[in-house]
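User: Hey, my collaborator sent me this sequence without any context and asked if I could get a structure. I don't really work with proteins. Can you help?
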Amino acid sequence: MFAFPKQRKEPLTDAAHVKNALARFDQVQDVIEEDRNLAFANIQKAAEHYRIHIEEKSWHDLGNNA
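Assistant: No problem. I've predicted the 3D structure and written it out in structure-token form, which is a compact way to encode the shape of the chain:
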């Protein structure tokens, strides 16, 4: 499973990959907002599976410290 399945970017095969996908989310280029929405939903699902807590409720919240 990939966060961005169409582009086959950011694999979600284990907890380390899920954390990496979150950290690198804003570095993925040439994707539309719909793809980002799907990617964040995929990451959330994988994070739940691997018992990783994500505070952000949207990909728009990633990297924001406010």
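In plain terms: Residues 12 and 18 are 5 Å apart (CA to CA). You can pass these tokens on to your collaborator as they are.
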